[in-house]
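> call design_seq(struct)
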């Protein structure tokens, strides 16, 4: 069952978050496949496809072969890819750390030849305004005047008051994908929070240059970042149906968010068959999340049985099925 997405200040029922996520993914895939993009199969987060990272941290890992000799289809490719970025891992358990992002997220990606720059810029704006029903005034472009080809498209698609020109350091408009001969230039798409008016990035359009020449255009969007901004959520982790009891309300919000991050990230990796150990870097990284889980839970008044109940419920709601016993998270 899908719902109708639109930017609104109405309540976002966290227990129904997977419906919003599924609807957003379906809308994205439907629009771009109808435009002729070829669907790419996602890969496991822990598959090791990209040797430059321990986990798949972006859909670009799936597309790197198009910079290594594989022919990019003339109408582009599109993928829905689950990812994990472990920047939070070393800070888990630090009571002064309040994670801004979740380690696990779903990435929406597209790649198309450079000569179709105008088309993908238009299609990206259409996704937000026509498909997702965002308020046009709340869709913002952040661009550098140095990138003439991107600026030309931004000025064509956005009214002047919706363009932020050179408001960020130069490195903000530059992109790396972990390949020595490939570099990117991007403009960012941001959404204004309907409740607070705060504007945050939700994705970017990136010109990827190979050996100094434009090669392809990448569209990179985050599911949870979009939903957070569309519905004015307090935190990006509220896009997952991890339902703590009302009495689990610690004074330190960061501790609760760290705990949520450990359950969400560990569940995603466990479902792929990964288990914590000291065997290699992937299993050691997972071990950081599972090791931090119990002491973080204790700080917010949740015992072992509470973790198991919460994690089993989360797995059922997020994935509509259970494929492992949540007690394994405590081993």
């Amino acid at each position: 069952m899908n719902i109708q997405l639109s930017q609104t200040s109405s309540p976002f029922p966290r227990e129904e978050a997977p419906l919003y996520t599924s609807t957003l993914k379906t809308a994205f895939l439907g629009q771009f496949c109808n435009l002729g993009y070829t669907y790419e199969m996602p890969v496991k987060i822990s598959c090791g496809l990209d040797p430059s990272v321990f986990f798949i941290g972006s859909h670009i890992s799936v597309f790197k072969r198009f910079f290594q000799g594989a022919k990019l289809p003339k109408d582009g490719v599109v993928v829905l890819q689950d990812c994990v970025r472990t920047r939070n891992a070393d800070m888990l358990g630090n009571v002064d750390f309040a994670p801004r992002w979740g380690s696990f997220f779903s990435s929406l990606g597209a790649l198309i030849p450079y000569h179709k720059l105008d088309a993908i810029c238009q299609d990206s704006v259409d996704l937000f305004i026509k498909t997702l029903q965002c308020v046009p005034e709340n869709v913002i472009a952040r661009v550098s005047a140095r990138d003439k080809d991107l600026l030309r498209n931004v000025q064509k698609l956005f009214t002047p008051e919706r363009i932020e020109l050179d408001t960020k350091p130069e490195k903000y408009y530059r992109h790396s994908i972990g390949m020595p001969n490939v570099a990117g230039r991007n403009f960012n798409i941001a959404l204004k929070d309907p409740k607070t008016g705060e504007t945050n990035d939700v994705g970017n359009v990136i010109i990827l240059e190979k050996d100094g020449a434009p090669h392809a255009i990448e569209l990179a969007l985050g599911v949870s970042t979009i939903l957070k901004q569309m519905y004015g959520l307090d935190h990006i982790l509220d896009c997952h149906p991890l339902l703590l009891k009302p009495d689990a309300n610690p004074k330190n919000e960061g501790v609760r968010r760290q705990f949520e991050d450990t359950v969400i990230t560990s569940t995603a990796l466990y479902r792929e068959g990964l288990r914590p150990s000291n065997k290699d870097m992937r299993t050691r990284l997972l071990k950081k999340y599972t090791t931090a889980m119990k002491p973080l839970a204790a700080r917010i008044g949740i015992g072992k049985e509470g973790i198991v109940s919460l994690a089993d419920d989360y797995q059922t709601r997020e994935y509509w099925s259970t494929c492992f016993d949540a007690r394994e998270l405590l081993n």
